[in-house]
Amino acid sequence: MERQPIQRHLEEKRAGFHELFFDLIFVYAIQIIAHVILHTH
């Protein structure tokens, strides 16, 4: 059964959203770690 292009497009959009979400968490975590390191010395 062939997938519908619209459904595939929505899945790709959802995957892109997850990547963006993880990127935001990653940057946020790095900022917290950098903040802690800078303020402990």
TrEMBL record:
This protein's UniProt keywords: Membrane, Transmembrane, Transmembrane helix
Domain of life of the native organism: Bacteria
Record-annotated membrane-spanning stretches: 20-38
Protein name: Low temperature requirement protein A
Organism whose genome encodes this protein: Staphylococcus capitis
Taxonomic placement: Bacteria, Bacillati, Bacillota, Bacilli, Bacillales
